[in-house]
Amino acid sequence: MTEDISMYQKNKMLFIWVASLTLFFAAVEIIYGFISGSLMMMGDGVHMSSDAISLILSLIATIMATKAATKNKTFGYKRFEPIAAFINGLSLVMIPVFIIAEAISRIISPIEIIPNQMLVVGTIGLVINGIVGYILTKASSNLNVKSALLHVLADLITSVSVVIAALGIKYFGFTWLDPIGSILTSIIIIAGGYKITKEAFNILMEGTPKGYSVDEIGKIVKSSGQPIHLNTIKIWCINESEIYTLVDVTSPSREENALAKIREKIASDTDIPLENIYVNMS
C-alpha cells in the first residue's frame, strides 16, 4: 500500500508539471494560429487545451486513487482512474472530428496562411510536447497515464505536421498541406483515442480484463482436484492493475478446506492476488 501511495505521489507531481506546460503553450498556439491563419496550429492549440483539461482530470484521478476505502466506498476511489481515462479517450475521438470538418471547409475555401509564424510556433510546440512526453514516460504506468501520454503523443504528431506544412507553404506554396495535414493527424488521433476509450469502457462495465479468461480460470478450478461442481465464474477489475475473481461452486461434501485449496490454486496459476480471489459454496 505504501508503494502504491509513493507511485501516486510521483505521478501527481509529474501531472502538475505537464498540465502547466501544456496549458501555457495551448494559449500561445491558439493566439498565433489566428494571427497566422493556420488551421493546424489553431487545431493543435484547441487540442492542447483539451489535453490540459485531460491532464488536470488525470491529476484529480491520481489524487483520488490515494484515498482510503470507506464503508460506503469499499473499493476506495481507484475506479476514478478508468473514468478519467474514458473521458480522455472520448475527447481524443470527438475533438478531431470537428477539426476534420473545418479542414474540409478550408480545402473548399482556402485562406491565406503566414508560414513564418506557423513554423516558429510549430517548432516551439514540438520542443514543448517532446519535454512533456519525456516527463510522462517517467510516471508509473497505468491506464490513466497511458491516456494522458496518448494525448501528448497526438500533440507531438500534430506539431511535426505543423512544421512540415509550414515548410511546404513557405518554400513551395503548398497551402493545401495545412488542411490535409489536419485530416491525417486527426485520423491518427481518433484511432488512438478509440483504443483507450474501449479499454476504459471495458473496465467500467466490469468486463473480463485483457489477458484473462473465464474458461482458463474454469480449467484451473477443475484441475485443483477438489470434489466440486463449478457453477459460475466472474472476473473484473477496479482499475488496470487490480484484478478480482469470484468463483461459485457446489460441493457434495461441503468441505470448507476445498475452497481454500481452490483459492490457492488460482493464485498460484494466475497473477491474481490471493486476497482478490473469492470462492463461494452454494
TrEMBL record:
The keyword GTP-binding does not apply. It is found in: Membrane. Its main location: membrane. Pfam families: Cation_efflux. Gene3D superfamilies: Cation efflux protein transmembrane domain. Keywords: Membrane, Transmembrane, Transmembrane helix. It is a multi-pass membrane protein. InterPro entries: Cation_efflux, Cation_efflux_TM, Cation_efflux_TMD_sf, CDF/SLC30A. One of its GO terms (cellular component) is plasma membrane. Residues 19-205 form the Cation efflux protein transmembrane domain. The chain crosses the membrane at residues 12-32, 52-70, 82-101, 113-136, 148-173, 179-197. GO terms for molecular function: zinc ion transmembrane transporter activity. Coiled coil: none annotated. PANTHER family: CATION EFFLUX PROTEIN/ ZINC TRANSPORTER, RE54080P-RELATED. This is Cadmium, cobalt and zinc/H(+)-K(+) antiporter.
